[in-house]
Amino acid sequence: MKKKQLYIGVLSVACCALVAIGITLHLLYPKKQIQNLVKTPPVLRLKPQPADTLKKKPVKKMDFNISGTLRDKEGKGVAGVIVSDGFNCVKTDAQGRYKMKRDSLAKFIYYSVPADCEVPTHSKTDRTAFFYQKVSKGKKIYNFTLTRLPGGKEIHYKMIVIGDPQVTNAYSPYYTSPDDNPIKKSDVERFTTQTMADIRQTISSLPAGTPVYGLSMGDDVQYYGGYNAKLERQIRQALGSSEMRLFSVIGNHDQDGKALYRRKWEENFGPTDFSFNRGDVHYVCINNCFFHRGMSYYSPGELRERQVRWLKQDLALTPKDMKVVLCYHIPFTFGNAPFSKAKPLTNAHEEGHYSSSRLSLLLSLLKQFKGGYELFCGHTHFACNHEINYEGEDVMEHCHAAACGNIWQSNINICGTPNGYYVYSFVGTSISNCYYKGTFWDKSKQMTLFRAQTDFNGEKYSRDWQLANNRNILIANVFNATSHWRVVAVEDGKEYLMGRLCGKGQDAFAAGYHHKYSESVSYRFVSKGNGYLIMNHLYYYTPRNPNARIIIKASDPYGNTYTASSDEAITEPFANFAHYYEKEYKEYKNKKDKMLRDSISGRQKDSLAARKKDSAAVQK
Questions:
Q1: 66 pLDDT exceeds 90?
Q2: How far is it, in rounded angstroms, from Cα 162 to Cα 165?
C-alpha cells in the first residue's frame, strides 16, 4: 500500500512538472517553434537556443558604385576610353574620369587600350597585355596610368595571329631526324624553341621601328596528361617572350567546363570579354565557348545574353568609322554540334554544319561600321577561310591553323598546313597584306605539291576526292587561299586555271601521316571521319604532257604571287617536314658529332697521358 502511494506521488509530481514546462514553453516560444523543437533530435533538445538568436539577421546592402580616373604619365586625364567590369561599359569624360555601377559578379575592372597609348604588359620580359585590375571587396576607386605613344596613333602595324598553342602536361613523341626513333620533349619547350623562336626571327626581319602586336586565338593550354597549376603561367611567359605585345582569347580547353581551369586562365590573362584599339581598328575578344553537360560545348560558338548586352554597349561606344575585328575561339559560321536555334548551312558540300544562332545579330552590329569588319577564330586545327552566303550577304570567317598542328603529334595541321602563324599588315582600316608563316619555313613557301595517285599510308587524293585514276594529276595545297586567289598551272608557257576542291574531305598526306605516327589523337579526329573537317584550299591540275615540268602560281588579293614546281611534289611518306625539321636535324646532328669528337678527343688525351706515364716509369 505504501509503495502504491509512493508511485502515485511521484507520478503526480512528474505531471505537475510537465504542465509547468508546457506553460513555460507556451510563454517563451510561438506555436511553430515549439513544434520544430519537439521534432528535433533529443541531443539538440537538451540545448535549446535563446529565442532572439532564431531571428534572421538583416542582409546588409552592398554598394557596388565605383569610380576612377585614367591619366597619362604627365597626370593628364585620358578622355573617351571605354571602361568595363565585363557586364557594363562606360566612357571616361574630358578629365579621364568615370563612374559605374559594378556588377556583383564582376571579377575585373579594365579599360579598352586607346589607339594612341601603349599596350601595358606584365613585365619587360613578359609582354602579354596587362590592362586590368582584380576586383577587391570594399574597393571603390580603380585608377589607371596610361603611357602615350610618342608618335600618337599608329598608321600601320603588324598583327601576328597564333592559333591554338595548346600545350599539354604530356611529353609527346617527337622526331628530330628522318627515322622512327622518337625522343620526348615537352609541349611548352617545343612552342618556345620552335613557334616563338620563329616569331622572334620574323619580327627581327621587319624594318626597324615597325609596331608589332600579337593575338592568341585561345586553347593556350589543355590539361591532357594531368592538371598542372603552373601550365597557364608557363604558356603566358612563352607567349610574352618576344618583342610583340600580345592579347589572348580564351578557348574551350582553357576551361573544359571546369571553374578551376577558367580561374587559372583569368589569373594569368585577365577578363575573357574585352576590347582594345590599334590604329583605326577596334578589336573585340569574347568567350564564345558555351558549355553544357560537363565538358561538352556548342559548335558553332554561342554567346550568353549578358555577353550580348556587354558587346552591344562596347560597340555603341566605339566610333563608327573604325574597322572591327571580332576575335573568339570557336567558329561562328560552321560547326556540327549545334545549339537548338543554330541554322543549317545551305552549301551542299557542307551538309551537317550549322551557323551560330547569334550570327545574324553579330552581323547586324558589325555592319554599322564604315571601316568594315573581320571575323577571327581558331579551334579547328585546320586552316580555313570559310565563306558562306548568309541571309543574302557574302561572309568570310578567318579560321586560323594551329601553332601546335595536330596537338604536337607532328609538324602539320590535319589539313596539311604546317605548324605556324599568320602575319597581318594593317594600314588604316584595311588589311594591306596577310601571309601564312610556317614554323622554320621561308615566308615565300605558301603551298605543298603532291601527285593524286601517291599512296600515303593507305590514303590517296584521287580516291578521297573522286579524281580520275591518273597518276600525273598534280595537287596543290595552298595554305591561306580563298575564292579571291588565282591559282594556275603553267605548262609549256601557257596558264591553266586549276580546279578547286571544297567539301568535307581530307588531306590524304596529313591523314596518312597521322594515321601512322599520331599516338595521343584518334585517327577519327585527323580524318574526314570526324564529320567536322572542311577543306577548301586544295587545287588540282591534269597535265597535257605527262612529262612536262609544271609551275604552280598562286596569286593572293594583296598583289603577292607564290610559286612551286612539280619537281617539288612530295612522293615519299614521310621523311619530310611533317616528321622533323631540317633545321633541328642539322643542330641535332652537329651536337651528336661534337659529342662524338669530344669523346674521341677525350680518349686520345687519356691514351696520350697513359703513354707519357708509362714512358716516365720506364725512364726511372
A1: yes
A2: 7
